[in-house]
């Protein structure tokens, strides 16, 4: 339905532009604007329909899940990462941080050892 309507609009715009001269060009621009606006509004409506369908079916994109979390979901995620805060309890986040610190220290220590070996009069 869109294709025949588009072709008909182009044909009519061309005829109007041919018969009306300079005013026909304005009519042609108005028709192009109208078609573009109509297409934009149809696309916008389709996107909204898809959102409604996804919401109804419970489908969400990974990006939406990570950025559109409720306060309760954020708190649950924090409790999962940090634990309940019991003394002496090591959490997943603590272990990740410790591993990161160990890697950085090993890099620094490796650089210092290389620097000492490369100095004149250093160990060889």
Key words describing this protein structure:
single chain; 124 residues; mainly alpha; 5 helices; 81% helix; transmembrane; membrane; transmembrane helix
Could you characterize what this model shows?
- This protein has 124 residues and is mainly alpha-helical.
- The protein has a domain at 2-68.
- It is 81% helix and 0% strand.
- The chain contains five helices and no strands.
- The protein has helices spanning 2-20, 22-57, 62-67, 71-82, 92-118.
- The chain is elongated.
- The N and C termini lie far apart (82 Å).
- The relative contact order is 0.04.
What is this structure, in a nutshell?
With 124 residues, this protein is an all-alpha fold. The chain has helices at residues 2-20, 22-57, 62-67, 71-82, 92-118. It is elongated.
Topology:
Blueprint: H1 2-20, H2 22-57, H3 62-67, H4 71-82, H5 92-118
Keywords: Membrane, Transmembrane, Transmembrane helix
Transmembrane segments: 6-37
**N-to-C order of helices and strands:** HHHHH
- Oligomeric status: single chain
Strand content: under 5%
Biggest pleated sheet = none
Task: Provide a count of the helices.
Answer: 5
What is the number of E strands?
0
**Coarse morphology:** elongated
- Computed structural class: mainly alpha
Ends apart, CA distance between termini: 82 Å
Radius of gyration: 33 Å
Which regions have little confidence, pLDDT < 50, spanning 5+ residues? none
Helix content: over 70%
Mean pLDDT score, rounded? 79
């Amino acid at each position: 339905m869109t294709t025949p309507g588009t072709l008909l609009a182009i044909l009519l715009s061309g005829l109007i532009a041919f018969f009306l001269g300079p005013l026909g060009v304005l009519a042609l621009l108005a028709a192009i604007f109208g078609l573009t606006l109509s297409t934009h509004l149809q696309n916008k409506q389709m996107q909204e329909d898809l959102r409604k369908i996804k919401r109804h079916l419970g489908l969400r994109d990974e990006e939406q899940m990570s950025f559109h979390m409720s306060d309760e979901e954020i708190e649950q995620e924090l409790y999962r990462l940090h634990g309940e805060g019991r003394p002496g309890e090591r959490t997943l986040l603590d272990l990740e941080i410790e591993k990161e610190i160990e890697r950085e220290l090993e890099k620094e220590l490796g650089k210092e050892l290389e620097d000492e070996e490369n100095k004149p009069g250093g160990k060889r």
